[in-house]
Amino acid sequence: MKVKTVTVGIRSSEDVLAEAAATMKAVATGQTVRPKKRRLFFTSPEALRKFLTPKRIALIQLIRSQKPTSINALAVLAHRDFKRVYEDVQALAETGLVDLSRETGRKVIPSVAEELRLEVVL
Q1: pTM of the prediction?
Q2: What is the C-alpha to C-alpha distance for residues 74 and 95, in angstroms, rounded to an integer?
Q3: Domain holding 39: CATH number?
Q4: Domain that holds residue 71
Q5: How far apart are CA 46 and CA 48, in angstroms?
């Protein structure tokens, strides 16, 4: 069973920038910097709620249960406009919550791990 863990948290912009600066300084001085696990931080609980909407959660569930062969097929299953589904799937893919694979031509197939774990860091 494929399991994907994404750490989700609430952090200030200053904290994120400070961590990035520390990482860049370490690289500049020749220190070894290990890649971090997949992390997704928001500046407030409201921003998290705006990103992880009920419609996006429903898309993740549809992808897992119905295994659509394209984003268009997913839009039909969700009874939603293709453009909006495409935008939501792209946003979810950018954060690692959904995987996209390209078949011959322009067809993009969405997929999601059998188990998706979100670790909340406050």
Answers
A1: 0.78
A2: 19
A3: 1.10.10.10
A4: 3-121
A5: 5
